[in-house]
Design a protein that fits this description.
Chain A: GO terms for molecular function: ATP binding; ATP hydrolysis activity. The structure holds 2 protein chains of 2 kinds. Chain A is of the alpha/beta class. Chain A has 2 domains: about 240 residues; about 80 residues, no CATH class. Chain A has 15 helices and 12 strands. The chains are: A alpha/beta, B mainly alpha.
Chain lengths: ~450, ~400
């Protein structure tokens, strides 16, 4: 791990370099397909993968990691940015160069059950890349396939069987064989083990690790499972709503997560160590729509470390309660007792300021005058049933920098973190995590 | 990379070399191109009168001949190229006796349809021998001028003419042997089957796959077109054509064929929509496979579970429609469809003093083609189901 940020020139040329990748999908309506919006599946993602390296892309479902991978393979048309494979722009490739790229970069898909054409024998499926790239000698194809099947732990005779005769783990082994058959330089593995159970999962991972070392293949490994990435990857990037929020060597990022979202992700993994419960929890569980991402930092509506306005002086815990209140009101996710009352046409809905405060765990009176004023006005508006007014009041009372400006990539140790707390232009200190720093360097 | 790491890699492949050799014309495409060229040459030479085939071919015959060429390239050539797959499918198809019997019937029907009229030729009309009963049965002796079998006395003055081996299946009111009429009907049925299978089914599948695979505006356009087309009743279109042109089998096939594929296209489209996101399709795309390759190898083979029975249902439907239209009398008078023969047997157009007969007295004229039609329809359904099972490797029989 000789990675050094800001010293790109010192390194050898990367195998895959993704710069400011944007893949937006238009949302269209009507027969004329007028564009009414865009899903920003991938919105400005940059990373690089060196030869023989494993790079993990982690995030919840819907964070855009699969779209990033498919764009890198040119299976989705990127709407912006640059992808370079071995120094050449992937989007400009054509003819023999494109065919060469198609041979050098291979894909392993998530679900082993639909990874294979049910009407093709396993031998045909593994030989398909060879045949597609013009190897007409059936005997030679058969020889290569038999060799490969044995290398991934199956028998050469299995070539004549159909995919449904194999278990999920065996199918994923065959998928690895198919990905290797063209001697690629890069394998994109999209959650290759998420459909498998524990022991099979680690067997398949071990196999992938073996072949990676043996054949010196770089792997772009996509997963929502932090533990799998910890086992398998040299470096990783954490994605949230189409952006990379933190990126760096695996051990460092996972032992000392800098970005609040990384801490939330780590917190979502059940742990036997009770001290891990210290890790952050998100303010709300609902992920915003990628078609309408929040302004400013995309994580700020759920961020437990959202930065308080400079002129509001509250205890961190209390501020977090207020922030949660503010964002629940904005997304309309009210606690059940208030939501139920809102639904009725009853002129005396039975909610007033006090019940609102109780429902949101807010104290009767806040120590900060300005804050108290805003919260009181908003609670009163909610009691009236006017959610829009409450949203506006709160936005005015608590103007956080996180909701206003997009953070730039900040540096911390040897990695990049996209959070205002690491941005030198913003006066906020990084919150220290409960885990101690255990770098291996 | 040096040669030293050969031991770690499996066989080294020089892709530059393979790439340079280029994509030569595959044997399949060559065969198809040659047979299409041969067909075109034959058609030109024959219509120009330079070459004579020895018998006259109508336009419909040419269309069906072209259909046979298309079917040969779509089904025949792949079946010959991969004999082990063909053998497996056929052995699975005939593994159940009922499917084997149905497939055997259809095979016999095809052989009779193609070669029957070539061998039997067109017998002379002999009104003198009309309404002979099949061998082993008897008809009234007064119906025909000459009785070829033995005559025996019935009740009162009625005398009966035994069926003879000259007409083992009997004759109709014009003295046409029933065997000849059945063979002619088989030929017409085969025409319907070939036309549908060679032109309508590929059209429907192509439209369905394109709409489902491409999506977007093309999908919108094609699905709206199919919806409009499904609203046009084929029989009305046929009668409009009937008013202006002569009734012909080709008109019937074109009208009913071109207006009846919407259902299959819709089916194929929805199946394609489900299949196109599958992992193996994505992997094939990542390998640089062309859309045509993906449709041919990854989509169509995987939708046979719904497509094959639907195709055979359409085949049966069009056979029945042809028989029905002929039964109503709107057919080419020179073509002896099973439908028109059934109608003649049920309502014999026989004139003459004292000639009266009920339909059941000449039962063989209507019953034999009706049995042939029923067997054909049943066989089509059975073979459709059998083929579906035979094509699916997950079905263990």
């Amino acid at each position: 791990m000789s990675e050094r940020i800001g010293g790109a020139d010192e390194r050898s040329d990367p195998l895959l370099e993704v710069e400011d990748l944007e893949t937006h999908f238009p949302i269209t309506r009507g027969f004329l397909r007028r564009e009414v919006g865009r899903v920003r599946a991938v919105d400005g993602v940059s990373f690089r993968i060196d030869r023989g390296e494993t790079f993990g892309l982690v995030g919840e479902s819907g964070s855009g990691k699969t779209t990033t991978a498919l764009s890198a393979l040119r299976l989705e048309e990127p709407t912006g940015g640059e992808i370079r494979f071995d120094g050449e722009s992937v989007t400009d490739l054509s003819g023999a160069d494109l065919r060469a790229f198609r041979r050098r970069a291979q894909l392993i898909v998530q679900d082993p059950n639909d990874a294979f054409n049910p009407r093709m024998t396993v031998g045909e499926a593994v030989a398909e890349p060879l045949a597609l790239h013009g190897m007409n000698d059936a005997e030679r194809r058969r020889r290569i396939v038999a060799d490969l099947l044995e290398r991934v732990g199956l028998a050469a005779d299995d070539a004549d069987r159909y995919p449904h005769e194999f278990s999920g783990g065996e199918k994923q082994r065959i998928a690895i064989a198919r990905a290797l058959v063209l001697n690629p330089d890069l394998i994109v593995a999209d959650e290759p083990t998420s459909a498998l159970d524990g022991r099979v999962q680690s067997d398949v991972l071990a196999l992938l690790d073996d072949v990676r070392r043996e054949f010196d293949v770089a792997v772009l490994f996509i997963s929502h499972d932090i533990d799998v990435v910890r086992q398998f990857c040299d470096r990783l990037a954490v994605m949230y709503l189409g952006e990379i929020v933190e990126r760096g060597p695996t051990a460092e990022v996972l032992n000392d997560p800098a970005h609040p979202y990384t801490r939330v992700l780590l917190g979502s993994v059940p742990s036997l160590d009770p001290s891990d419960r210290e890790l952050a929890r998100p303010l709300t569980d609902s992920v915003p729509e990628p078609s309408d991402p929040p302004a400013g930092c995309r994580f700020h509506p759920r961020c437990p470390d959202v930065i308080a306005p400079a002129d509001v002086d509250l205890e961190p815990d209390l501020w977090r309660t207020v922030a949660a209140f503010r964002f629940s009101v904005r997304t309309g996710e009210l606690p059940p007792e208030i939501d139920a009352a809102r639904g009725t046409e009853d002129p005396e809905p039975g909610i007033d300021e006090t019940t609102v405060r109780e429902a949101f765990d807010l104290p009767g009176e806040l120590p900060d005058d300005r804050a108290e004023e805003g919260v009181a006005a908003a609670a009163e508006a909610i009691a009236r049933g006017d959610l829009d007014a409450a949203t506006d009041t709160l936005a005015e009372a608590f103007p956080t920098v996180c909701g206003r400006e997009s953070p730039a990539d900040g540096d911390r140790h040897e990695r990049q973190v996209r959070c205002h707390r690491y941005d030198s232009a913003v006066e906020a200190t990084p919150r220290s995590s409960s885990r101690t720093l255990e770098t291996d360097g | 990379m040096s040669d030293t790491d050969n031991t770690h890699r499996f066989e080294r492949v020089d892709w530059e070399e393979i790439d340079r050799s280029g994509r030569s014309l595959s044997s399949t495409r060559a065969t198809v191109a040659v047979s299409l060229l041969a067909f075109a040459a034959l058609y030109t030479l024959e219509t120009a009168g330079i070459v004579s085939l020895g018998w006259h071919l109508e336009r419909i015959d040419w269309v069906i001949l072209l259909g046979l060429v298309v079917l040969g390239s779509l089904v025949g050539v792949p079946a010959v190229r991969r004999p082990e797959v063909t053998r497996r499918i056929i052995s699975r198809l005939v593994s159940r006796p009922i499917h084997a019997a149905a497939a055997g019937f259809l095979a016999a029907l095809s052989l009779v349809g193609i070669f029957g009229s070539l061998i039997l030729g067109s017998p002379e009309l002999s009104f003198a021998h009309r309404l002979h009963a099949p061998y082993g049965f008897a008809s009234q002796a007064g119906w025909h001028a000459e009785c070829l079998g033995e005559i025996h006395q019935g009740e009162g003055i009625t005398r009966y003419c035994e069926g003879s081996l000259s007409y083992p299946l009997g004759t109709n009111h014009r003295g046409h042997p029933m065997g000849y009429l059945l063979v002619e009907g088989a030929r017409i049925t085969l025409y319907v089957l070939v036309f549908t299978a060679a032109f309508i089914v590929p059209l429907a599948s192509t439209v369905g796959v394109v709409a489902g695979f491409r999506g977007g505006r093309i999908d919108d356009f094609l699905t709206s077109y199919i919806d409009v087309q499904l609203c046009v009743p084929a029989i009305v279109a046929f009668f409009i054509g009937y008013m202006y042109w002569n009734a012909s089998l080709l008109l019937l096939l074109v009208m009913f064929g071109l207006l009846s594929w919407g259902g299959i296209a819709r089916l194929v489209r929805s199946e394609t929509l489900q299949r196109r996101e599958d992992g193996h399709v994505l992997v094939a795309r990542s390998l640089g496979a062309s859309p045509v390759y993906i449709a041919k190898r990854h989509i169509v083979p995987n939708i046979t579970n719904t497509l094959v029975p639907a195709i055979f249902h359409l085949l049966a439907l069009l056979v029945l429609v042809e028989a029905g239209v002929a039964f109503l009398g709107f057919h080419d008078i020179e073509l002896y469809s099973w439908g028109s023969t059934i109608q003649e047997g049920l309502d014999p157009p026989v004139t003459g003093v004292g000639l009266r007969m009920a339909a059941h007295e000449i039962w063989w004229v209507s019953t034999l083609p009706a049995v042939a039609l029923t067997l054909t329809l049943a066989s089509l359904k059975l073979v459709g189901d059998g083929l579906r099972d035979a094509l699916d490797p997950r079905q263990n029989t």
